[in-house]
User: Fold this.
Amino acid sequence: MSLSMRAIKVGSLGSSWAAVLAKRSGLTFPADLYVEGTDQHRGWFQSSLLTSIATKGKAPYSGVITHGFVLDERGLKMSKSLGNVVDPATVIGGGNKPGEAPSYGADVLRLWVSSVDYTGDVMIGSQVLRQMSDIYRKLRGTLRFLLANLHDWEADNAVPYSDLPVIDQHALFQLENVVKNINESYENYQFSKIFQTIQRFVIVDLSNFYFDAAKDRLYVGGSTSFTRRSCQTVLAAHLLSIARVIAPILPHLAEDVWQHLPFQYTTEDGSIPKFVFESRWPALNERWLGFPDEEIIFWENILELRTEVNKVLEVARTEKLIGSSLEAKVYLHTLDDSLAARLNEMSAAENDADTLHRIFITSQVQVLSSLESVQTGDIPYRGEYIIQGKKKIWIGVSRAEGSKCERCWNYSPQVGSFSEHPTLCTRCHNVVGNQPIPALAAVS
Assistant:
């Protein structure tokens, strides 16, 4: 079974370019692209080239793509006698009998096509489709998270880029890099690279880090707080860009997202696109791409450090010192003066989003100037790690100080300091204290 849509090609004759391009309105000579299987290198491609050169003096196409053929999961050619044929209609709609074959829908099949290296033969089967379905659900879950956390957001709420916390500026830098790489991959017909880029971005960069760290300020901070609005500004940019760049591959999912946008999107010319394919391709934001090189390196260090901190937290969790990571206090020490200065700067960040304990999802973080004054008995779990291959970091973990806030579940020595809300920390006390008192219903 060929990957190309043979129905759009007029036979396999080398003169098909003349019958199609020269006779149908709206088409021009030469064709932008010829697509066929590898068996046509000396067939349709070659005969088309010869006839066109002979009569027109140039090739009938600007570009050529050749592809392999679809095999079953064992690498065997599909045939009815073997019973290993995978019918696209069955993949999309499911089997005729209950329980015979699941219905994956067109998007999962399209996602599989984007995932394979079509330059050679490719394999498909029930196991491959299940894997694609899992990846599709993860991507759908990411988009659902974005939609849910933008339910009260409007364009007027956007925080200017220069005012965003550094973690948010870094997230926008990563987004623009992804859009740039995907755009280049589309231009070069490298669809498997698009699949790999989206998969890594959604699972690693977003779900495992940015979303994980952002949940605290999205769920716990005040509904109109600066850090929540700054995070929503970043989430809105991600939602609009991801929906548009996946649309050529996953049109149903992209349109589903677009029809449920919780805010009105307006293009630069003032129009309001009703459908995702009316929204235009996302233009690259050079300012977001201009995130300083030294900051890029620093955030690479932070992401690697976060991984190492999680390793020590896991040891403490295994040994029953802590349950949730919010029950922990992390200690850091490094002899690298520049790194130590930045870590101290983040520990005292004015905005809550850039602080180390929010990034590590712990209740406290302390950067130690030396290890001489540390009582090792007070820090039962510790280790020394090397990040970026050269910077040595000492990491320790102990129980967090103070009591648990019943609202945000962070531990703080300030819990119990407020008579009107004795179970809340300072942040939650301020949020709750600023909430308007609901009007009581009139009693008839």
Remarks:
- The longest helix spans residues 191-219.
